[in-house]
Design a protein that fits this description.
Chain lengths: ~180, ~575
C-alpha cells in the first residue's frame, strides 16, 4: 500500500477561460495536495492554453487526478509524466548591487561559469537571469548569497514532453465530426 | 467569454430579431423545452422576472418560499422526469441559497440549469450591494459554470449550459448574468448546442472489454450485479432487466439505483450499503464476479475498502472514466453509457441460472426477515414503526407511487421497504444527504409528472428545514402527499449516539409544534395518527385525496434502523441488531 511518492509533471491543455484555474487548483486543494509549481501559458495550438503543474504524489494519485482534470468540461486533454519523460527548466532572476560587480571580481566569474545572463545594469543594481534545473539555480543562489542578493525570484517549472501529445488531432477530429 | 473562444457545435440557425438580454433568456428556456422553473425574485434578476410576466402563458414560474426550495424542486422535477430542472435566483443571498441544492445535484448527477442575476458588470469586484462571487463559490459543486456580462453571449452560453447539464454524466450548471447583460440588446437567434470540443460526454466503448466482461460473467459460479443510478440516468432499465434475466445473475442496487428494476423481480436481491439488505452485503464478500453498473462505490456502499470484495473479479460499467479505479480497482472496465453497453453485452452472455447461489441469498434474507424485517413491518409492540407505515403506503398506492424521502432513519426505511413498480420512483438525497430535500423535491416531482402519485416521507427534523414550502404547495395547488414520521428525535443521529456515544443524546431531542395545525394554516388538510388501528384508514384518506394531504405518524421514539454496517467496518461485518 505504501506507494512511492515521486515528482510528476502534469500537462493540461485547456480552453482559455476565466475560472478554469480555480477548477484546476480546487482539484488539488480538495485532496490536500500541495502544488510545487504551476505555470500557464499559450500552447502550440492557437487559442489553447497549457498548464504545467508539478506535484509530489504517488502514481495512483496522479492517475486519479488526471481523471478529475479530464472531467472538467473545458479541459481538452491532460497528461502526467515523470521527470525522465520530460525536458524541463525553471528560470530565475537576481537583483544585485552594481558596486559588487567591481568590488568583488569573483562575481564576474560566477556569472560566466553559471551561464547566467545580465539583463540590465545601472548605477545602483544589475539584474541577472538564469534558466536551468533547480539545483543549478540553487547553486547559483548560494554562491551569490555570500555577496548579498537584493531580490531573488524563481519561476515555476516549464516542461515539454518527449512523447507526442495528440491534442491537435483531437481538436481536428471534433471539427470534422 | 469572448464568443470566438466558444468551441461548440450548434444546430439549425433561425432568423434573428433584436431583443434585450432578459427576453433572450426566456426565449432560450422556451426553446430548450422548459415548461416550469422555480425561483425567487430580487434586484439583480428583476429584468428576467419582468419577461416571465410577459411570457407567463408559455412558461410557468413557481415562486418557492426559499431559494433552497427552488433548487430542490428543480432537482425533484429532473429526477422523476429525466428532463433538465431549472432554478433561478437573484444575486448575493439568492444565489448562495441555491448552493446546497447545486451541491446535492452535483454529487447525485442531476441535470440542473441555475440562472442567477448579478450586479451590473461595472460594479463587479466593488463589493456592491448583493454582490457575491457565485461563480467562485459554485465552482467546486457545478459541472460547469459561467458568468455572462454581455447580452450577445446569452443564447450561446445558455445552449451550452443545457447541453452540458444533460449530456454524458449529468450535473448542475450555473449561469451568472449581470444586470447590464439582461438590459442590453442583442440580435437574437437560438441554436441548440450539440457538442463542445473539449468535452467528451460519453467515452467510447472498447469491444474487447465487453467480451472480457461477458467471459467473466459466463464463467462465474457466484456472480452478483450491483447497479446504481447510471442505469436510470442512461435509461437502461430494459437492457439491465434483459441482462439479468438471460444471465440469471442476482442483482442488488444502491440507493440511487432503486426502482430501476421492480422490487418484486425474482432476481432483485435488495439494497447494498450501510443500511442495505443483509444478503447482498454479506455476499459482496463471497461472490466470484462483482458486476458494478453505473455506480461509483460510495463509501456508504463499500464500507472498509480494504476488505471489500477482495475475492471477486470486478467488472465496472461506467460513463465517467474518473470513477474507474477511483475507489475499487476494476479487473475489467467497460466505458460508455449503460444503455448501449448493456445492449451490446446481452448477445455475448450465455443463458444461465444460478439456482443454488440464489438460494444462498434467500437463506440470508430469511435470517434478516426473522431478526429485522418482521419486527419492522409486522410489529407486535405497541408503538408504531416507520416500516409498517411504508408497508401501508405500498399497499394503498399499489407500489406505483414515487417516494421522495428526506434524510435520516425514515429515508433508510423508505429505501428498504418501498415497493417500486416504476423506474425513477426513488427520489432522495443520496450523496449529499441533505435534510430539507424532500418537501421541495416532492413538489417539483409532482409538477413534472402530475399523473403520478408522489409521496414525501420526511422526519420531524428535516421537515422543519424547508417547511416553508407548504406555502408553495398551497399557492400552486400541488397535490403532493406529505408524510412526517415523527419520532421527536433527530433519529439517525440519536441512533449513532445510542450505539457509539453511550446514549449521550446531545441536542437530538426535538420539542415539536402541532404539525397538523401548521398544515391546516396553509389550508392543507391532514391528520395525526398515533395508533395502529388508525393507520390504514389514514393512509387511504391520504392516497385517495385529490389535493395535497398531510399525514403525521407518531412512531416509536427510539427505534433503530438495522441492518447496519458501522462506518469504517467491512460489508460482511453487517450487524442485525
Ligand atoms: C442539512 C443537514 N444537517 C444535518 C444533517 C445530519 N443528520 C443526518 S440524519 C439527521 C437526523 C434527521 O432527523 P429527522 O429528520 O427527524 O429524521 P429521522 O432520522 O428521525 O427519521 C441529521 C441531523 C444532515 N444530513 N443534513
Amino acid at each position: 500500500m505504501n506507494e512511492e511518492i515521486k515528482t510528476f509533471t502534469f500537462s493540461i491543455y485547456t480552453e482559455n477561460n476565466i475560472g478554469l484555474l480555480n477548477r484546476i487548483s480546487a482539484i488539488f486543494q480538495r485532496r490536500h495536495i500541495n502544488i510545487e509549481s504551476l505555470t500557464t501559458s499559450q500552447s502550440e495550438i492557437e487559442g489553447v492554453n497549457r498548464f504545467v503543474i508539478v506535484v509530489d504524489i504517488t502514481e495512483t494519485q496522479a492517475k486519479k487526478i488526471i481523471g478529475q482534470f479530464q472531467k472538467q468540461v473545458e479541459v481538452i486533454r491532460a497528461y502526467y509524466h515523470r521527470d525522465d519523460e520530460t525536458i524541463y527548466q525553471e528560470s530565475c532572476m537576481f537583483k544585485i548591487k552594481s558596486d559588487l560587480l567591481f568590488d568583488e571580481p569573483q562575481i564576474q566569474n560566477i556569472i560566466k561559469e553559471s551561464n547566467a545572463r545580465i539583463v540590465t545594469v545601472n548605477k545602483e543594481f544589475f539584474v541577472l537571469e538564469k534558466s536551468g534545473r533547480r539545483f543549478e539555480i540553487e547553486e547559483l543562489r548560494q554562491e551569490l548569497n555570500k555577496f548579498g542578493i537584493m531580490q531573488f525570484v524563481r519561476s515555476g517549472r516549464i516542461a515539454v514532453t518527449k512523447e507526442e501529445m495528440k491534442v491537435t488531432e483531437m481538436l481536428s477530429a471534433f471539427n470534422n465530426q | 467569454m469572448k464568443t470566438e473562444t466558444i468551441h461548440t457545435k450548434t444546430e439549425a440557425t433561425k432568423q434573428t430579431e433584436r431583443i434585450c438580454g432578459s427576453e433572450a433568456i426566456i426565449k432560450c428556456l422556451i426553446a430548450e423545452g422548459v415548461d416550469i422553473l422555480y425561483g425567487y425574485p430580487g434586484g439583480a434578476i428583476m429584468p428576467v422576472y419582468d419577461e416571465l410576466y410577459k411570457y407567463q402563458d408559455q412558461i410557468h414560474h413557481v415562486l418557492t418560499r426559499h431559494e433552497q426550495g427552488a433548487a430542490h424542486a428543480a432537482q425533484g422535477y429532473a429526477r422523476i422526469s429525466g428532463r433538465v430542472g431549472v432554478a433561478i435566483a437573484t444575486s448575493g443571498p439568492g444565489a448562495t441559497n441555491l448552493v446546497t441544492g447545486i451541491a446535492d445535484a452535483q454529487i447525485d448527477s442531476t441535470p440542473l440549469v441555475c440562472i442567477t442575476g448579478q450586479v451590473p458588470s461595472h460594479l463587479l469586484g466593488s463589493d456592491a450591494f448583493q454582490e457575491t462571487d457565485i461563480v467562485g463559490i459554485s465552482t467546486p459543486v457545478t459541472k460547469w459554470n459561467h458568468q455572462v456580462t454581455k447580452a450577445s453571449e446569452i443564447p450561446e452560453v445558455i445552449a451550452k449550459a443545457f447541453y452540458i447539464a444533460r449530456s454524458g454524466r449529468p450535473g448542475p450548471v450555473l449561469i451568472d448574468i449581470t444586470k447590464d447583460a439582461q438590459f442590453g440588446e442583442l440580435d437574437f437567434s437560438y441554436e441548440k448546442c450539440t457538442g463542445v470540443r473539449s468535452y467528451i460526454p460519453v467515452p467510447q466503448t472498447d469491444p474487447n472489454t465487453l467480451q472480457a466482461a461477458a467471459d467473466l460473467i459466463n464463467d462465474a459460479k457466484k456472480p452478483m450485479i450491483v447497479w446504481g443510478q447510471g442505469v436510470i440516468l442512461g435509461e437502461a432499465e430494459a437492457e439491465l432487466k434483459a441482462v439479468i434475466e438471460k444471465s440469471g445473475v442476482p442483482a442488488a442496487w444502491t440507493i440511487m439505483g432503486a426502482s430501476a428494476i421492480p422490487t418484486s423481480h425474482p432476481l432483485n436481491i435488495g439494497m447494498v450499503g450501510m443500511h442495505g439488505n443483509y444478503a447482498p452485503n454479506v455476499k459482496t464478500n463471497d461472490c466470484d464476479v462483482l458486476v458494478a453498473i453505473g455506480m461509483r462505490f460510495d463509501d456508504r456502499v463499500t464500507g472498509d475498502l480494504n476488505t471489500y470484495a477482495k475475492q471477486a473479479k470486478v467488472i465496472h460499467f461506467e460513463i465517467d472514466p474518473a470513477e474507474v479505479n477511483k475507489n475499487v480497482k476494476a479487473d475489467v472496465a467497460v466505458l460508455g453509457n449503460s444503455k448501449d453497453s448493456l445492449a451490446a453485452l446481452l448477445p455475448l452472455l450465455n443463458k444461465n441460472s444460478h439456482e443454488s447461489w440464489l438460494k444462498e441469498f434467500k437463506d440470508l434474507y430469511d435470517i434478516e426477515f426473522e431478526k429485522v424485517i418482521k419486527n419492522d413491518i409486522h410489529p407486535t409492540k405497541e408503538g408504531l414503526t416507520m416500516g409498517e407505515v411504508l408497508k401501508e403506503i405500498n399497499k394503498q398506492s399499489k407500489g406505483n407511487a414515487a417516494i421522495v424521502s428526506d434524510v435520516g432513519q425514515h429515508q433508510m426505511i423508505a429505501c428498504r421497504y418501498s415497493e417500486f413498480n416504476i423506474t425513477k420512483s426513488n427520489i432522495t438525497s443520496g450523496g449529499l444527504g441533505t435534510m430539507g430535500f424532500a418537501l421541495p423535491a416532492a413538489m417539483g416531482a409532482k409538477m413534472a409528472e402530475p399523473n403520478r402519485e408522489v409521496v414525501a416521507i420526511i422526519g420531524d427534523g428535516g421537515y422543519q428545514m424547508n417547511i416553508q414550502e407548504l406555502g408553495t404547495i398551497f399557492q400552486q395547488k400541488i397535490p403532493v402527499k406529505i408524510v412526517v414520521l415523527n419520532n421527536e428525535f433527530l433519529g439517525m443521529v440519536r441512533q449513532w449516539q445510542q450505539l457509539f456515544f453511550d446514549k449521550r443524546y446531545a441536542s437530538t431531542e426535538m420539542t415539536n409544534p402541532d404539525f397538523v395545525t401548521i398544515a391546516k394554516g396553509y389550508y392543507i388538510d391532514g391528520q395525526r395518527v398515533t395508533k395502529r388501528e388508525e393507520l390504514a384508514d389514514a393512509v387511504k384518506t391520504m392516497i385517495d385525496s385529490k389535493d395535497s394531504y398531510f399525514l403525521e405518524v407518531c412512531v416509536e421514539k427510539e427505534d433503530n434502523v438495522f441492518p447496519m454496517i458501522p462506518s469504517g467496518a467491512s460489508v460482511s461485518d453487517i450487524r442485525l441488531s
